[in-house]
Structure formats: structure tokens, C-alpha cells
Queue: 3 jobs
Job 1
Amino acid sequence: MSSSACKVAGQRRGKNASRRRSWALVAVLPTLGSPLGSLAALPLGGASLAAVAVVTSVSSTARAEESPEVEALLKRGIQLRKDGKDDEALTVFLEAESQAPKSVRVLLHVATAAQAASKWLMADEYLKKAMSHGDDPYYQKYKAEIEEVRLATAARVGHFRAIGEPDGAEVVLNGQVVGTLPMETPKTLEAGTYIMEVSKPGFFRLRRPISIGGGVLTRESVELNERAPGSVDPADPNGAAAAAEPKSYWASSAFTWTLAGIGAAAGVASGISFYLREQAIEHWNDDDRCLSQTNPDEPRSSVCADVRNDIDTAEQVGIITGVVGIAFAGAALTHWIATGGDSEPGTDTAERRERRSAGHVQCSPGLMNVVCSGTF
């Protein structure tokens, strides 16, 4: 046999040995006048873990508490455990628990199946239920084995409590609310690493990773700093997005006033042009200035040709600037309506972003027109 083949064979033997070690039977329950029945054990990721073994035939005392229907469910669940179908077995045991909620055997089956399915909080819950029946003969008989199961579960379940200020601040772990400051009652959680977030309106948000150990109480001290009005919280995702969003001059009131200023200036220019036109017309109609005294046959257009040009120019300028003034004034009014008349220049406020997400109409000025678009 080649060295590589030996290596593969050795790895397979090691895996099989590890799989065999992952199953441990600690306790069995003999029946009155009957041999030991079927057993159930708990596989746990390659690590030995004691599990309470149960029998399919039980004493007359147990039968008085557990109906044939419950016994059938237990047999079915045990077989599913043997087949490695722990999740399905857990469902069956929970059904049995609904029919015999005070049976220590059933509660322990639920706990060990939950362990095998890595549902540590459920396993801890049902172990506590079983331990509440400490005077039960079944519990007393296998108390040492049950304690081994409890210790194994406790290594995977921890307790968390946050203390500090301000009162009423919301405490969130991995997106799940677990309480408010100060947490009077610890929260039971699976051991592991979490992202803790603590927040309250008017205070800076706190966000940091924490580690919750198994079998111990983890305390986290928290103190939030008060936030000044209008300041941006860098730990707040919404606030950070708002801070990162560039300021928009085009959506500010400053742009509205710019449009209005141009419109007003064009209106003034138009008024001056028409005033100069009237002055030129008076000059044109003045016979003393636009008729030749020495040559009565010379036409007015010849004597005051430059005045006629001034009239035409002033009229054209007045009309053009008047139209421009009206266009920019209308654009300013439209922009003010579309942006809601925001008074703070150069900012894209949360209120405006909210309007964008809802139905709205938005208008933009052109050179001689206004273009409007909307979403509904």
C-alpha cells in the first residue's frame, strides 16, 4: 500500500473514531421486570456530551403519567435521533411535551434534542423546566447525568446586562432589542460575539462589539453623551448618510433668490429702456428739434435719424429684458414652491429627502421656460 493510501485510510479511521466518541450514553432506566429498552444519545459536533437515555418500556408509575400516545411519540423521536434527524426529532418531542408538559422524561428529551440541533437557549429552557421537578423519582435517579447535560449547556449559554445612563436608552444586540437602561433583569443569550448598540433621542449613539461568555454574567457599562441640537451623530447610519451627502446649492433658497434677483434686474432694465424710449419719442415729436428751419422740405427721419434709432433700440431692449425678467421671476417662484421655501442655503435637509421619497413635483428653470417633473 502506498504512503498516500495509508494516509487516507488513517484519516478515515480517525474520523470514524471521532464520530464514535461524539456519542455518549450515561444513564439508562431499567423497567420493572423487563430488560433495558432503547436508548437515545446526543451527538455534539465531535465532542463527547452526556445525554439522558430513556427506554421505550417504562414502569407502571411512568405509564400512569405518560399516555400510550406520548410513549409512541417518544419512540418515534428516539428513532429519529438514531437516524441523525435531530430537528425532526425535536419537533416530535415538542409534540409529546404538549401532551405531557410535566413529564421529566419528555422535558429531558426536548432538551437533549435541542442541544443536538444547536438550539442552546431552548435546551437551557427545558433543562430548567426539568430541574423544577427535582423531587421526581426519575430526576433523582439520574440527577448526576442530568447535571452533566446542564453543565454542557451552560457552557454555551450566557447572561447579559447593560448598566449606565441615560435611563430609558434602548439596548440592541445584533439588531435585536434586549432591554433599556438600566437593565434590571439580565438577558439570557447564546455565548458569542455581538454588536451592541445603545441609543436615545438627544444623545450620541454608542456602537461597539462585545463578547458574552458561557455560564457567566457579562456586564457592560454604558454612558451616552448628550448631543447638541442640529449636530450629526457619526454613529447613526441615517445621520452619517446625511453628513456624507454633499450640499446642493441648486436646491437651496440661495438659488431661489438668485433667480429672483436676475428677474428683478431684468425688470428694472426693461423699465429704464422704455423710459428712454419715451424720452426719445418726445425728442422725435419736437418740431423745433426734428424739423429743419432752413429747409422745410427735409423729412423728420433725415433730421433726427439717430433719435429714431434710439427709439427702436430702447424698444427692443425693453421687450427683451421684460420677457427675461418675467421668465426669471416665474422660475424663482416655481423653484421656491418646488423646494418648499427652505431658509437654510446650501443644505439638503432630511425633510427634503423625505419629500423626494414620496410623491412630489419638481421644476427647473430654463432660459426662456420652466420644466417640471413629478413622481406619484
Job 2
Amino acid sequence: MLPHIPSALSLSLSTVDVTAYRRVGVGVGFAAGAALSVVALLWMLLVLTGHDAGRALGAFWAGSFGSGYAVASATMVRAIPLILAGLAVAVAFRAGVWNIGAEGQLLVGAAAASAVGLHLGEQLGGLALIPALIAGAAAGALLAGIAGLLRARFGVLEIISTIMLNFVALHLVGYLVRGPLQEPTGLYPQSATLLLAARLPIILPDTRLHWGIIIAALTAVSLWAALRFTAAGFRVRAVGANPVAARIAGSIDVGATTFAAFLVSGALAGIAGGVEVTGVTYALYEGLSPGYGYTAIAVALLARLHPLGILITGTLLGALQAGGAAMQRDAGVPSVLVSIVEAVLILAMVSGARRPPLARARWAGVGDDTRARSATTT
């Protein structure tokens, strides 16, 4: 049961709830407009660089939405880690926490899932998937918890700590694939391959789409319900909307709420890494993530931090990555050009938001404190 909510704080949050779906619709509209704009920019860029624009755009479409196989095996497979990592970013940002470390949390989650899957695959068979994904979530939460502890105990900005921890995770994976987890021959910097029993099953025959898509969808729905209907979700939304008002008018422990948001965010990113290892790569190696954790920031912002909207935006950016790879492979477009196109699309999507969600963060300014004090005196 939700606690008693003072009128000023309740009114503020009810207004946010009423407009939540409208924000998602606006975000999707901006995404569609941005996609059309970038197609035009891409065509111009291809022409200016001397490439066959028609062939390149045809390859882009064929590699992303051109067939059922492309949708299932390319777009959706790339969308799965983007959705899960996007949910991780959304949880943190909704609580006013700038977690930029989803990339590192994803990597340590992948490492932990690989270690558990390799050691328990023979003993537990298919049941090894459960402890492997749990280990991934725990590893991601642990890394995020370090940043949360540094913020709570020493006042270290999480923007700095989470970015630095990304490099710690990157080098940790490099150490593991050359040391404790290296494959038996010692020739390659990667782990051994997971047994078939320790992999996520394929959900559609003759495709690469695995059960991770179900995990991602259920996680999005569960997170939406938790934020919308539970006391813990109310506390997260209250702290993210105005931490001063939440503490004074709502009697909410802001520090505990933000630390819990850190842990949940890290756990979701860790699950993304575990799902990628058990469903796609089947082994741990350097370069396992092409920047999923960073792209997830755009996924979350485009969806206005709404968990259900992230299902759409994650799919859109998954299609972008799949189509870009097809352009490079089938039309001879250099990878640098593909990266430019991806960056332009992300910037267009994020800049299309009329009201940046992060404007409600705890450091929004003195005006928030003034409004909070005003609310408590009325």
C-alpha cells in the first residue's frame, strides 16, 4: 500500500502520470521524423562521398527490415541488449542518478555469466542458465554499487565514477580472457565456448532470435508496473522529480532510494551482458559489446525513460546497427561512414525531445529548492 502522499507532491506526480503516455507518443513521433530526416542526410552523404546511394540504402533496408530473417536475426538480436541496457539507464535517470556505466556493467555481467555457465554447464545442463543470469545481474549490481557507495560516502559524482569503472570492466575482461577464463589451448584471447545446454534456446527456427527477447519484453513490462504501481516505484519517481520535495514533503530517504536505483540499474545492465553471452556470442572475448551501454543512453532518452517506449526505441536503434552493418558488407560503405550515420541519427533523436527528462535531476537548480519550500508551506 502506498504511504500517505502530501497534496503538493501528489499533485506533481499525478500530473507526470497523466502525461506519461503522451510523452511516449511524442517521443515515437520524433523518432519517426528523425529517421526520415537521417535517411535524407544519409542519401546526401553517400552521394557526396561518391557511393551508390540507391545500392547503399537498399542494403540498409535489406539488412534491417527487408525480410523476416533480417528482422529476427539482425534487428531483434541487436535490439535485445539495447532494450535491457536502456531499461538500466532509465531506472537510474528516473531516480535522478546519472549512470553512464551501463557499458561496464554489461561487460562484468557477461564475464560473470560466462564463468558460471562454463563451470556449471556440465553439472546442471540447461538449469545453468538461471545461475548464470543471476551471476550477471549480481556482477552488474556490484559494479554500480561501487559508484553508488562513492557518491554516498565521499560525494564523488557518478558521471565520473561510472565512466572510469567502464574502463575497469574493459580491462578486467581483457585479463580474464587471457588468464582464468582463457580457452584451453591458450591460443586465443577468449573463453571456452558454452555448452549447448547452457545457452538460451532459439525462439524461432532457422533464425538467430533467442529467448532473450522474451526476457527483455517481460523485464520492460515488469519495470513499468513496478514504477507505476508500487511504493518503491513511487519513491523512485518522487526522488527523480524533485529530491528536495521528496525528502521534505514526502519523508522519503533520498539516499537509500538513489542507491537502490543504482543497484537495480546495474543488475539490468548485467543481465544484458549475460543474455548476450548465453544467447549470441556463447563465449567471452574483448570487443563483445560494440558500445551497447553507451547507445542505451540514447535508447532511454528517446523513449522519455518510459520502459514500454524503450521496447520501440531499442528496436529502432537495433535496426540502425543491423542496417549499417549490411551497408558496409553489401555496398562497400566504409565503417567510418556507417558510424557517422549512426551518430547523426542518435543526435537527431535525442535533440528532438522538447523537454529533456534530465532537467528534473537533483541538480536542476535553486528554483527546485524554492518550489519545494513553497510547497511545504502551503
Job 3
Amino acid sequence: MTAFISTSITFFNKAVLASYAFGSPNIMTLVQMICSMGFLVVLKWMGAISYPSPSMATARKVLPLSVAFMAMVLTGLGALKYLNIPMFNALRRATTLITMIGESWLLGARNTRIVQLTVWLMIGGAVLAGWFDFDFNAMGYFLVTLNCIATAAYLLYIAQLGKSSGLNTFGLMWYNNAQSIPFVLALCWYNGDFAEVQSYPHLYDWDFMACFIFQSALAFLLNYSIFLCTQVNSALATSVTGQMKNIVTTAVGYFSFGDVTYNAYNVMGLFVGVVASSWYSLLKYWESEANKKQSTLPLTSPRQNEATGHMAQTEEEKQSLLQHVSAAHPHGTTPITRTPRAPGFAMGPAGLITPLSSPPHPAKD
């Protein structure tokens, strides 16, 4: 579901901006945020979701996160207006490099050399594709660079805040939209976007309106599906899904809007980026599985009887335990045998001798 919604919103955004020549990505951002706010309020009123009530202290705490979120959405839509989808996906992979550097600097995270190699291969593929991009657009490249920085900052802020904000995902979504809407409103007014929209020739065409409303609703569904995918599966599964989505959008984007100029080096660069991102996801998956296995291992490695399934215990361990009891109870030691109980110890399954929680005191003379 996450991959489908993410792919759909990319193409619907591109259709509104390119096919219908809608020139106000700021208005698109504003409507997406208003729709998301509306969905959150209605769903909370229905009892389907919950998030804490607003407070000024929390708002100040998550303000940097909201600013990064607003910048990420605005620059993403702006870059998509000027770039074709394959190049947009290729250049946005620089987000991974910026995030990796930021995690190392701010959070002390370390990645293996093979993971670092895949990230540099992504960047190399993007540089190769961009160097031979015959549809080069300086504004598009500038905006996608800002988008990579804003996206990395957004992710790092989430990692740094963690649970300290006391908000769940829906709460973060609410604050992000509530604090971003006034800034986007001011930006639209300053740029004259409202007047431009009023003069837009296809404003009341049913097909444009359907596409515009659909992409606005998908913005909320995308955030919700990412949350759901992360909760049901894992954050890694969401990341891998995103990389696989990029492969689909890159392939389909070549033939969808007629804005891609083919050449061998550009295609090679895009291919290197896709392979590197897939390799990166696979390495992260293996790392996650290894960490899961390591976290579930016991502190010691107990021996298990293959026939009965019970834990095995050597005669040396039993003798040591019984000798300890004998030394602690000089007035009444118990012969060292397999069957009788020793004071303070009980006979467990398969002949295991285990200590009781509170061994009895020795009888007084």
C-alpha cells in the first residue's frame, strides 16, 4: 500500500505541474497541508486516532521539525516542476549521504565501509546522470539540493527528538501542518500565487480538479501509510519499500510525460543509482536481521538435551552445587547422590539441581 500511494502521488504531482501546466506548487503545498489537518481533526473526533492536545511548550520544542517539514514539501514540489521524474529520483538519493554524515556527527552512528560504498555509488550515479542531463534546469537542481538538505534535517530531527516530545506520529503530523500553514499562506500571498490561481485557465475543468484533489488527499494517506507500514512491519521495511518505489517511478517516468531526453551516459548513471540503492537496502536488511538475532541471544549459551529438550547439567556442576550446600550446613550434610534433595536446592527436570529462592536455615542444636 505504501509503495502504491507513494508512486501515485509522485505521478499525480507531476501531472498537475507538467501536464496541466499548473504554476503554483506553493498552493499545492498549502492545500495538501489543509487536507491533512482536516483528516487528522475528523479522525480524532471519530475516535479512530489519538494525539495529545496542543501546548505552547510542545510547539516550541518541535518548531525546527516543522520548519524542516515545510521546507521539504515546498522544495520537493518545486523541484518536480522543473525536473523529470528519473532525474528527480536520482538526485534525491543525495539525501542518504547527508543523513549518514549527520547521523555520524550528531548521533554518533557508524556505518560499515560496504554501506558507505553503496551510498557513494548512489552519488556517483546521480553525478553521472546529471552531467549528461540534456534537460538540465538550474532552478530544478537548486531546489532538489535544498530538498535533500531539508529531508535529511527532517529525519535527523525526528531521530534526535525521539520520544522526548511525547508525541505519536499523528501528533507530529498535526504540529507540522499547524505550524507550517501560516508560513505557506504568507509565502503564497507574497508571491502572488492566489491571483495566479484565479487566472489559471483550467481551474474549473473537472479532470484537473479531480487530479488536484486526489493528489491533495494522497499527501495525508502517504504519511499515514508510512506510519502503518512502520508499525506493522518495521522502519527498514518502509525504507526498502521506498527504494523499490523509486525503481518503478524511474522506469515508468521515462515514458510518461515525454520530458526525458535519452542518452547512454544519462541512462547508465540512473542505472548505477538504482542498483546502488537496492544494494544499500539489502545491506541494511541484513544488518537489521543480524541485530535482531544478536539481541535475542541469552547472556550464556545453555546446553540442551537433544532427546528430551530439557537443559543439560554436567555432573561437575551438580557436585559443585552440593559441595557448596555441605559447606554451608555442617550440622547435617546430605550424601552426594543424584536422587535426594540437598538443603536449599531442588531437583528440577531431567535431574537438574537448582537452588531454591530462600534455602532453609540449619537446624539448631
